[in-house]
Amino acid sequence: MARDKVFPEVKQRIEKAQREGAKELNLSGMGLTEVPEAIAKNYTQLLGRLSWQ
Asked: What is the pLDDT of residues 7-43, one digit of tens each?
């Protein structure tokens, strides 16, 4: 899937997980080939709150 289609969906999922205080966020199967800015900006905070698989 093209970056311009994947990244908005990823950003929405990250924001939802943050709002809801999620402990996990599974982004597998989304076709990511680079780290979205939404993850890079909040990397330390996200790592402390989410389980990455």
From this structure: 888 888 888 988 998 888 888 888 888 877 767 776 6
pLDDT at 20: 92
Q: Look up the domain containing 15 and give its range.
A: 3-49
DSSP the chain: --HHHHHHHHHHHHHHHHHHT-SB---TTS---S--HHHHHTHHHHHHH-B--
What is the count of structural domains for the chain?
A: 1
Distance CA 31, CA 7 (A): 10
- Residues in contact with 20: Cβ distance below 8 Å, sequence separation at least 6, in sequence order: none
